[in-house]
Each structure stands twice: as C-alpha cells, then as structure tokens.
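Chapter summary example.
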Amino acid sequence: MMRISVVTVCFNAAATIGDTLASVAAQHGVEVEHIIIDGGSRDATMDVVRRYPHVAVAISEPDRGAYDAMNKGLARATGDYVGFLNADDFLCEPDALAAIAAAAGAIQADAVIAGVTMVDGETPDKVQRYYGIRNYRPWMLGFGHMPPHPTFYARTTLLGEAGGFDDRFRIAGDFDLILRLFRKGPLRLARVDRALVGFRHGGLSTDGLRAKATLNAEIERALRAAGLRGVKLRAMLRYLLKLPQFLMRPAKFAGRAAFASQVVSAPQDRATPC
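The structure predicted for these 274 residues follows.
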C-alpha cells in the first residue's frame, strides 16, 4: 500500500488544529503518516495534538518561520509522496488521501493536484469560492499562478532533491518550490478533479493588503530567480487566471461532517492559526 506523508506546521493553533487532526485521522484506504511540527506554541496546541494517537511525529520547538518548519517535516517524511496541510485547513473527504494515492499510482506521477474549497474562517462549512484544477496548466506558473498548495502532493524524494523550501520567503515559499520543480524538467502530473481540502481564509497569504503586497513581491522575486522577464506584469496577470475561482462551486463538499466523528473534545483557546 502506498504511504502518504502529511506535514502540518503550526504555532498557537489550538482553535483550529483539531479539525486538521480529525480530518487526517478519518482517512482510509491508504497508509498515512501525519507529522506535526510546532513552533513552540504558547497555547494548548500540543495538548490538542496529544489527543490524536494517529500522529506519527510531533515536535514542538522554536523555528525560523513556516518554511523552516516545513523543511523539518520534509526531512522526517518517510512516505512515497508528501503534502502540507496547514493547521487551519482540513481534508473534506475521508478518502481524500486514497484518491491522491490512486491518481499518483495510475500514471506513476511525480506530483498530484486536486481541488480546494475556500471556506469562511469562522464558519468553515460555508463555501466562499472553489479552486478547481481541471483547467490548470503548468505554464501558468510562469505568470505567478500556482496549483493549489494544500492539495499538491509530490514524490518525497523529488522535494528533497530540489532542496526543499527556501526559508527566506515569508509567504510564497511554496510557489517558489513548485516553480523550481517544474522549471527543472517536465513532471508527470496527475489530477483529482474534486474538492479534497477545505481552506480557511485568514492564513498568511490571505491576511489583508499588506500580506498581498508581500506575496506579490515574493512571487516576482521567484519569477526573476527562474530567469523570467516582465515579472511585475506576469504577477498581475495571475489575477485574471484566478477569476474562474469566484464563479465555480464544488460539485460536492462534505465540510466538517466528513470527519465529525473523529473530533476530540479539546481546550477552546482562541489563537491565530499558522
């Protein structure tokens, strides 16, 4: 059976990480390795983590930011494929990882992408928009438009060979890594054309105008490092490529009901998720 590693990095995420943990615990049909890398939370985050026995690795220590933490998780991943599920996101189907594994195995893929449903931060069963992947093409990376990173699963060895995440990035380190992967050479890309992750608004990349300015600057920096020209125009054009997200809705979205039976009662600390 294929083994899938899921890395969750977090800091003061007690308010939301229970959903993340429960959604991974509910997965079936594939061997799952869930790795938690905590940045030394001061709330009850690790108390929540300890309530879920499926977790394979749980580390809590200071780090240099989200991408440094992701690299720690990547270094510990032993699965055939690895993906990164943030502490305010959740798998919205109990066979989400099995679907990733099946799509990867069908063509011996280097990477797999699937749809992501953006949900309201306070009401995670409320759909705001849908990022479907049916029409996504790798050439869009050259315009700053990346596949949805919460459902991007790649061969663990491939990410290691690429050097992992550049932790000098604050927000766009995932875009930089995926861009480097595809620029290095053609990848066999598999797709699962349905929503597999619920993505809460309010994380680093969606947190206000200042975050968007930082994101744009970092995308331009990554494009420039890849040898592309006209990076400011390219980065702006990505908004046109994202327009369909505001018009589409997932054909099916189970929301938190998909893993409700796995939710463990935990302290209700209100905190800012990573």
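To summarize the output: Strands lie at 3-10, 31-38, 55-60, 81-84, 89-91, 111-119, 127-131, 153-155, 189-200.
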